[in-house]
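Hey team,

Filing this mostly as a record. A colleague (T.K.) asked me to run one chain through the structure pipeline before their review meeting, and I want the input and output archived in the tracker in case anyone asks later how it was produced. No errors, nothing strange. Just documentation.

Input sequence:
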Amino acid sequence: MPTITKENYLKALYYLDQKDHDITLTELGKVMKVSKPTVNDMVKKLQSQGWIKYEKYKPLRFTEQGRKTAALIVRKHRLAEMFLAQVMGFGWEEVHEIAEELEHIKSDELFDRMDELMGFPSVDPHGSPIPDKEGNLKNRNYKLLSQISEGSKVKLRALRESSTDFLLFLNKKGIQLGMEIQILQIEPFDKSMTISYDDHPEIVISEAVSKQLMVEEV
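Output structure:
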């Protein structure tokens, strides 16, 4: 059974693997904020557990067992976030740190009960998919708002980034998942967008923001 530290490494590897299958020790060390010797030592431990494969000068690779183990940690985290938001009324900017602690609870029954009480949600409060009990994710064919053409209408489905600062920024703008957004104008010079939604007739957002919003065309 993984320790809390090993679970944190597995989760970090899982997120890196979602972005790029070629994971290096350097990348993992940056995410975990540890030195290369420290990350190298932990990688050896993870390999001895059968969770990853590693050869010197080659990328880290999950084994099937390791990917499932990591996905189930992510499942606990995202279920906890959703429970905190949907049942307990926490804001989406408040749930991450609490879920970081809850994800290490060993009781699968607790998280299965959370899942059932919420009606088996498929995503967390930030729109990230919740792995099923086998560690599988449903594919989502969302686009970035920055990829959508002027005049289009979309629905906001997920966020690429869910840092507290970014979520507080979205709160100030009244932007939330599920809302319909119309792209009124795209500025050719800097790709900033003028958009409308709900009771906001004209709001300008930067390209940096539009690249963090994942949408579905309607």
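Quick notes for T.K.: Strands lie at 52-53, 61-62, 143-144, 153-159, 180-186, 193-197, 200-205, 213-217. The chain has a mean pLDDT of 95.
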